[in-house]
Amino acid sequence: MDLVGKPELWRDLFVMIGTSAGALVGLLFVVISLHVDRIAERTDINMRMTVEGARNNTYHLLTVMVEAAIVLTPQPLLLMGLELVAANLFGLRLPLNIVRRYRRQRVTISEQGGFPTRLILTIIAAYAAGAAGGVALAMSQDWGLFLVAGACMVKLVRTVLTAWMLMFGMFHVQPPDGD
């Protein structure tokens, strides 16, 4: 099937992706709002990373919403591709900042403890795939939408799993010695 110049064939998928991201932003906001007092009572490194992780989850979901809007907006593939590259490179700063701030610190935000390397690598890979899909679309390569859709789905799933881990980690994990 020739998909070049036919992002309308992807309409239903990107409507679902954008709607899901919007609903999840609302749910994440409600959960954080309900537990703001519990969050505020801890000041250790784990809590700082938990709060930053929750904020970043919201940004990841907002990025997915923006990507869906970009794909659903009638426009030339070149412009769509460039916008998707920009959105994904802008979003990529979030996991890279987490790595820069917390990599060498003793973080135990999950039951397994330790720095969440796989989690961060998954998000980085999703943003890289989204940017690569944008480059492909800018070059009129129809397979770019497969990368963009897959990257959006990975960001949605990873964000839900991360939010779950952060919430349970916040309530069950003790801070490391010395914090």
Q: Overview of this structure, please?
A:
- The protein is mostly helical and 179 residues long.
- It has one domain.
- It is built from 6 helices and no strands.
- Helix 3 runs antiparallel to helix 4 (77-102).
- The longest helix is centred in the C-terminal third of the chain and has 29 residues, at 144-172.
- The termini are far apart.
Helix-strand string: HHHHHH
Total E-strand runs: 0
Rg, rounded, reads 18 Å
How far is the first residue's CA from the last residue's CA?
58 Å
Write the layout of secondary structure elements.
Layout: H1 11-34, H2 36-40, H3 45-72, H4 77-102, H5 117-138, H6 144-172
Please summarize what this structure is.
This protein is an all-alpha fold. It has helices at residues 11-34, 36-40, 45-72, 77-102, 117-138, 144-172. 35% of the residues are buried.
Overview features:
single chain; 6 helices; globular; disordered C terminus; mainly alpha; about 180 residues; about 75% helix
